[in-house]
Automatic annotation (TrEMBL):
Native source organism of the sequence: Daphnia magna
Compartments, record wording: Membrane
UniProt keywords, alphabetically: Membrane, Transmembrane, Transmembrane helix
Polar residues bias spans: 1-19
Protein name, per record: Protein lifeguard 1
Amino acid sequence: MLVSGETGNIRSSMFSPSNHAVEHSNELSNENSILVDNDMSDSKSYSSFRSAFPPTNETQDENHAFSPGVIDNSFSFSEKTIRMAFIRKVYAILMVQLAVTMGCIAVFVFVQPIALYSKGHPQLMIGALVMSIVLLITLICCIDFRRRWPLNIIMLGTFTLCEGFLLGSLSSHYDSKEVLVAAGICTAVCLALTLFSMQTKWDFTAMGGILLALVVVLLMAGIVAICVRGKIMQIIYASLGALVFSAYLVFDTQLMLGGKHKYSISPEEYIFAALNLYLDIVNIFIYVLALVGGSK
């Protein structure tokens, strides 16, 4: 799913005259791309920008090239503007998702009749789980659904409600104090990791292979935890899971930020970016809750 795509279409469409912009955006757009390789963006954008204008004696040399300084500044300004609007949209969607999820968890934890009804009807939890998986696969694999308004928002909202129901049902098996402690720890960890992602010079977007290996290790540890039950094994597995998805939160945050990182998510994929961050935070909460509950 993490594939490199063309990025020159965004920059050339911002600065080329209208006729040439349409021609270049049609040639360079790739609807199937989710990630863009930032190492290739400068040369491709420069080529598109250069070919969009007719040569003049004052601004071009014998190869019809513009001044590199002017091009870099212009594209830097345009890319930053687009990226900032994209980040604001992603975090706005994410905040709504988290608010809905926390509301569902609070209802299941503090309203006992609903918690008891959920425990007495496990088929509801199974149905929510199946629907969550179907919606998740659809949002990830079907680009048309993910980019079509308002279908993408409806599907994402339905997925959030299903996840809220699942997390609420899970939280009802723990004490309310344990849920509150886990929520507080999760909030602090996610905030710290987000600030770290924005400030660090380490590029986690180039570490996809390492993160995949960690997921495989987590899967193997889960199989071992099923076969070898015990309090210590539960704590080890929960700690490993929280660590893996904390790394994924940094990875997905830097993909969204773009800039000097090797890979970045296309600004058209705000649903995909919000979904990634939401799943990272949800998984961190699940493992922290298991860690807090298992330690008592």
